[in-house]
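Contributing new records

If you add data, match the layout below exactly. Sequence lines come first and carry their own label; structure lines follow with theirs. Keep one chain per record. Anything else will be rejected by the validation script.
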Amino acid sequence: MAEHHFRLKADWPGGRNSTGSIEAGNLQTKISIPHEMDGPGVGTNPDEMLLGAAATCYLITLAAMIERANLPLKEMGLESEGIVDVTKGVITYKKIIHRPTVALQENAEETDYKKLHKLVEKAETSCMISRALKGNVEIELQANIT
């Protein structure tokens, strides 16, 4: 069994509307509460970082699966959306929607497209971030495969 440890250092100078910073490996950025939640909107925020973690994990997992399946990938990309609900002052990260776009090369066969459809779904359930969120945040896929 292998364990990987990731570390983050955070600095926060004061109250709710302050601007802090984080450092974690190659990630170094300012942090604050987003404008949407009446904060200063400087740098990134937990909502964006959770969305970024889920999106990049999904995309990298899908890319690895496509490579392992030897599918003739032409290009791929992803747009993701996070939905945060605020009801009676309680903030809940409700849903993440992944919208992957995957194109196979012109020489792709019908069997390649069938595999790809399965992998697009499987990558979401295989991604470690999706598994960590399971039962707490709904994750939906809206794939565009060409």
